[in-house]
UniProtKB/TrEMBL annotation:
Parts of the chain that traverse the membrane: none
One GO term of the biological process aspect: rRNA processing
Stored SMART domains: EXOIII
Cellular compartment(s): Nucleus
Residue span, Exonuclease domain: 73-235
Region (Disordered): 1-69, 237-272
Similarity comment: Belongs to the REXO4 family.
Protein name: RNA exonuclease 4
Function field: Exoribonuclease involved in ribosome biosynthesis. Involved in the processing of ITS1, the internal transcribed spacer localized between the 18S and 5.8S rRNAs.
Highest taxon above the source species: Eukaryota
Main location: nucleus
Lineage: Eukaryota, Viridiplantae, Streptophyta, Embryophyta, Tracheophyta
Bias (Basic residues) ranges: 245-256
Length: 272
């Protein structure tokens, strides 16, 4: 039996499936690619796709961290306004939302203003005419919110607008307010407050208020800003309270001395 002569110039045959794939890829390319380049291109696209998918799969920090929907010791609030008065330039409460410290909604209601709505301000408020057709009356919502926030820490952004100015018309103990628009580390270099969307992007890495505002999202952002800075925030509040108490005691000590000085001066004048 003669030995078979091997031709060194003969190349190994490609797998038929691989050869078909290479042919298809070459049809869409003006410049022929080598097997290594083709494989790198295919794997590269697969890698890019997996990276994109991993970016989208990153959890949103504003998502609730628990399924607990109970009323907690701290509550965040956000309100949306509509326009009333003939020109629609006067604000009235159109929706109010409360979330607990976990970010779960404990109260969310549309509100029917006492005055006729002229401007729903949908581009910002997200409120539409159909939302207010079955909305609750202002007094009912006001009473319920007052019950929920009583004796609790109230978190929010520019809370004075939500509590007083043409909104809920409620008062809350100043020592129990945690306003992200007034917390010193959140202020700009000039000492002015930043918008909530800017705080969310800077400190939470989350974009909010892109278009119509969502009061649930805004309340969650305010609560998360508070929770992540709670230790320092509460310490600064206690230090400020101690300082105010010391100043108060100093004033109380000065008053008796002033009264004693005045009375002695009066006696001296009488003797003269």
């Amino acid at each position: 039996m003669g030995s078979e002569v091997k031709n060194p110039k003969n190349k190994p045959q490609l797998n038929p499936n691989w050869a078909q794939l290479r042919q298809k890829l070459n049809c869409h390319s003006s410049k022929p690619k080598s097997d290594a380049e083709t494989l790198q291109s295919v794997l590269g696209k697969r890698k890019e796709r997996s990276n994109a998918e991993s970016d989208d799969s990153q959890p949103n920090p504003l998502n609730p961290t628990s399924s607990d929907c109970s009323v907690t010791d701290a509550i965040a609030m956000d309100c949306e306004m509509v326009g009333v008065s003939p020109l629609g330039n006067k604000s009235a409460l159109g929706r109010v939302t409360l979330v607990n410290k976990w970010g779960n909604v404990i109260y969310d209601e549309y509100v029917r203003p006492v005055d006729r709505v002229v401007d729903f301000r949908t581009k910002i408020s997200g409120i539409r005419p159909q939302h207010l057709r079955k909305a609750k009356e202002f007094r009912v919502v006001q009473k319920k919110v007052a019950e929920l926030i009583k004796g609790r820490i109230l978190v929010g952004h520019a809370l004075r607008n939500d509590l007083k100015v043409n909104a809920l018309l409620l008062t809350h103990s100043k020592k129990d307010l945690r306003d992200t628009s007034e917390y010193q580390p959140f202020l700009n270099k000039e000492g002015r407050s930043k918008a909530l969307r800017h705080l969310s992007a800077e400190f939470l890495g989350v974009k909010i208020q892109n278009g119509e505002h969502c009061p649930i999202e805004d309340a969650r952002a305010a609560m998360l800003l508070y929770q992540r800075n709670k230790k320092e925030w509460e310490k600064s509040n206690k230090d400020f309270a101690r300082l105010k108490e010391k100043q108060k005691k100093r004033k109380q000590k000065k008053k008796p001395k002033e009264i004693e000085t005045l009375s002695s001066n009066n006696c001296t004048a009488a003797v003269s």
